[in-house]
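Ticket #494: bound-state structure for beta-D-glucopyranose.
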Amino acid sequence: MVGLGPKPPPSRKGTGSFVDVPKDLLKEIKRLEKLFTVDTAKLKQITDHFVNELEKGLSKEGGTIPMNPTWVMSFPTGHETGTFLALDMGGTNLRVCQITLTEQKSEFDIIQSKYRMPEELKTGVAEDLWEYIAECLLQFIQTHHGDVSKLDKIPLGFTFSYPATQNYIDEGILQRWTKGFDIDGVEGRNVVPMFEKALQERGVPIKLTALINDTTGTLIASAYTDTKMKIGCIFGTGCNAAYMEDCGSIPKLEHLNLPPDTPMAINCEWGAFDNEHKVLLRTPYDELIDNDSPRPGQQAFEKMIAGLYLGEIFRLIMVDLHDNRDVNIFAGQDIGKLRRPYTLDSSFLSAIEDDPFENLSETRELFQNQLGIDPNSSELELIRRAAELIGTRAARLSACGVAAISKKKGYKECHVGADGSVFNKYPHFKKRGAAALREILDWPAKADPDDDDPIEILAAEDGSGVGAALIAALTLERVKKGNMHGILHPKNFQ
Ligand code: BGC
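RESOLUTION: The complex was predicted; output attached.
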């Protein structure tokens, strides 16, 4: 066809010039910039408050951040061995893996199957959830091991990525559902017996050796291959971190008289940071998200950072600018699709931020194809800027959590293992987070741009697979050596 050459080469980097943007739209862009920008002073203030809140969570009185002890009591050496099953109930998918930690240091083999978590299960009844999970496990074992009636029980690490109180490693009392889950009859109860009942009913040959949070799994899996790893983070559907504390610095465990220098991994559950709204500057859009969520008042920090919410914040801005503001964007167009809550996930924002073209033609196509809206060129500039603001705020705020743990522990240099869709796929998330960390911790400018930062946030090893297997292995090993702390059912560890 004549005249239809290849697309122009990718060129666009960051914000456009806005020279042609009409005044009223420009005013809205400025308003959004003011709402969403977190400057260095604010980052530092948030971090300092964060350090105090981490301490409070470990105190006897407790605080807003749960700081859950996990009974993971050592880092791996790299010499762990054995074959384990791992089940990952994260938020979006269900994954079952079989991991073999091999004789070769820090090496493993893995086979895995993914199952989509049906949307209706997330807000359904508890029995259906456990039945679905047990069925997936049964299918996996039958495929890889054959007739289940002939099998000995296989040890399993269950990655249950929700805040859970663990008096024992093989127990998890759900504190509250997060990430849009809302299943009756589970909060306040130990999920392990419910899970085991469903397994028993189907004759699934499994013994649960550890209930794990994805952040703890990430920490341990990353430390398996990199001894500088001190913190494990998830920036995905939800957001959270884990790190290794000394029992002597956990006043709420004082009554157990554990040796003060014994390590204990803490699942921070930092998504709950600042539920009191003391330091985080929430926008009207954050407030709307919170009010309309199944758990208003909970997970204030998470709701500004995690993948589940980024697209929704953006959607709320767009609807507001169409309905309520003088600019009346997308005037005269049907925005019915855009009105549907949670219709845009964070990959929609990623695609906007990834649009390489000066005229934002890919963004325009995205709006046309997914929402039936045809934005004009000025509206496209506003769309791009809104996405940048939301993505940048998320990355900068997440750095406050990493800085807070590092400050609390006195880590001047270390590696942080991070996983999750936002960390791995959202454009510039890593770079923006690293820049914020530099501002918070006052690092001098790099002599060479290729130099490492003192604290580097790096892509983690597979926490809910390899991490879960390692934790199961470490737990079996310590029980063998007679360390029975935090073990509820010793018979499962023989
Ligand atoms: C959960 C955490 C989890 C995080 C990342 C949060 O909503 O409360 O337990 O680690 O999501 O998956």
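RESOLUTION NOTES: Residues 360 and 380 are 7 Å apart (CA to CA).
TICKET STATUS: resolved
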